[in-house]
Task: structure prediction
Amino acid sequence: MSPREALAKAWRNAFPVVSLCLIVALIVLVTMGGSEVLQRHVTEMLVNLVLVVGLYVFAGTSGVLSFGQMSFMAIGAYSTAILTIPVVQKQFLLPDLPGFLADVHLSGIPAAVAAGGVAAVFAVFIGLVICRLSGLAASLAMFAVLVIVHEVARNWDAVTRGSRTMIGVPVTVTPGVALGWALVVIVIAYLFQRSASGLRLRASREDEFAARSIGVSIPRERFGAFVLSGFIVGIGGYLYAQYQGAFTPNAFFTHITFITIAMLVIGGTKSLSGAVVGAIVVSLLTNLFNSIEDGFTLGPISFGGRDGLSDMALAAFILIILALRPEGITKGRELRWGRPAWLKRRRAAPPGDDVLPAADDARPAA
Amino acid sequence: MTQTLQHVIDAVSLGSLYALIALGVALIFGIMNLLNFAYGELIMIGGYALYFLRDLPFAFQALGAIAVVVLASVLIERIAFRPVRGANAAVLLVTSFAVSFALQSLAIVVFGARAKGVSLPSWLDDSLAIGSLRVSSLSLITVGVAVVVLITFAIFLKRSPMGIQMRAAAESFGTARLMGVKANSVIVAAFVLSALLAGIVAILVVAQGGTVSPTMGSSLVLVAFVATIIGGMGSLSGAALGGFLLGALTVALQVLLPESLRPYRDAFLYGAVIVILVVRPGGLVAVRSALERV
Amino acid sequence: MLELDGVAVRYGRTEAVADVSLHVDAGEVIGLIGPNGAGKSTLLAAISGQRRAARGTITFQGRPIDGETPERLVRRGIALVPEGRQIFATLTVEENLRLPTFARRDVDADALIERELERFPILRTYLHQHAGRMSGGEQQMLAISRALLCGPRLLMLDEPSLGLAPKMIDAVFAALDSLRQEQVTVLLVEQNATRTVAFADRSYVLVHGRVAAQGTREELAGLEEVTSSYLGLEAGP
Result:
């Protein structure tokens, strides 16, 4: 291959990740001068983006929908609290913390990596079990994990303050910091996706039997993705903790699980671009819904309660997407270098529609 | 001895409740491959209907609540699930998750997030003395209702035309259609039946707890899912049995766990659930049947 | 009775059926043969409503069937004995037989079922047992009876002799013969080319999703395509 061809190829390969990073960076730059409320929205969007990318790294590449990845967000957040709350304050907030944990103090990048690392360690143990299960069983088992982590967080007073709010976490996450981590995470996810392991995993997602016939060990590939996913989602937990400064176990339960899954599905489950696009679009939508819902009445029922209404609207939106465009906005494809498909003139696609899916038997493809 | 008997009754009672819930989920799953996350919300809707109709005499209150749940179930099928019928398992799962979430949010918007008290007639949860035992009438009623419902269902599925069509559809939906079975009829029937179960469960749950809240259904649903899977995909009796075992296990954990660990009871239960999922061929059955297709 | 004109059916991007035109008149027995993957089953799937044709028209008794659901087509008079029999193993034989009668009005289900039990006495032996316990050949009898209980004007069979012992295959063809006596219109898809061509009034040879040859049994007997398509020697597009 000539140098020119090699360069062109490298550009084509890098384009998806570069363009995603540029889009995200652009959003942050554009809103930089804006109001504080706007800054908060952008930071929240970036934190969610990290979480969704983490979710994608496992669920998107393997095709196994995990309803419990946010367990790692919880682990990351609580680890962050333990690691970064100043020692003196910690003594007061978490008096029963075992020795080593009571004395340790980290900040900045080491803290983030450590928090992600703790989550990753948990992911190793959980993953050893989960990755052996069939798709459906794995999804449910992860939901069980979510419930377990939530339950433990609510009761383990010594480490998590139980159901009381964890407070005192240093607030260090600005839009800039969040952007930095978002970019890092996007690049990591992209590199994984294009790695041999990522390729094997995505092959298994498309056709499990074909993949196995060429020697792909599905549990092993899933395991790698699972741990990496845990790490990234753990970092998301770190960002969340150091953005909010305070949180309860409920922050890592069904609400955030739904939001992140919605983002991934609406964006397009099978691609990294889908994760990023989904995070951006859903954040925009929820802001839109929030601003609309500031009180309006419909007949005898008056709608109040912010969260309720925008959640409903989001749920309705995801239902519409699932019905009309189940593969999401990006249809599971990455952003590509080249003329967009809709600009090229194509032969009209024939109407061939299947009344029933190819496998008419009602057995699930595990 | 009395204590143990007491616990056994509790175990049987909770097991019966979970068996009913599992049946409602397995019914839909067997026919459509859909694990209905929103089933918990059907129970919640039943609860809020009881709350809404609280000024009526109990018979009307109960029947009205069940009717509301059935109506809601049919609407949900028509609006949310029919457009994605036949889609792959992931889409179906996320759809039902979204519906569940939407309904919970709706309840929060309309009724608020805090629990509301609903008092049902006292005979439902009375303390009866049988010999040296103190038994709550609710336990007996729960078991009795479960037995009656399960028997009725079994007869319905075995004898009635719709029952035969549902069993055929559960085995092979496409082939059933080739024999003239109407897809819509069978699916709506399944949603109606599972809603009937949800309504009954709602009454029993509210009689026990005395409150309704937007999240009252979500913890129950996971149990139902697990029971459906470990009972063997699509096997109704397996699901009911699975539900029963999980109920018994819950009570056993409550009794056997040391005091300090008791708050973690649900964590242990779901831990056991994960173990079952790993060990139980129920998970392997799916792989095996998928292998058969190759 | 049945007319296909320029029909194409796709699986995703692949055209399993590229361009098929054929017709079946009332009372005829039509054979459809061809090598594996020629598109025969796909064609039946399109006619029975399980798949939609990407191109062309399918007309049944003068009315197009496009987009009709399988259960509606059963009501209009098309019944399919699917490949691999697909009987309901967890239902009893009697339940299998009764199932199609639910969709019909004003029929004496018991009498109709009795008639099928006379046709295939072996079914009576297993009447109240799970259908999964019968052998392949017996299940084939059940599948045929089950389809007949739909009261069809057109009966389609997808490879009924697949996997059956020679004696059972004879029994299947004997049953088809009695159907011919009863003036039932039959569309028979089979791998067993020679026997099918000899049995049917007319046959079509399908290769790579197209009709490679057609004709009466006299016209097709010994025809190059029949033998070569069966052996897969046909160089196709």
Remarks:
- Residues 283-294 of chain B have pLDDT under 50 and may be disordered.
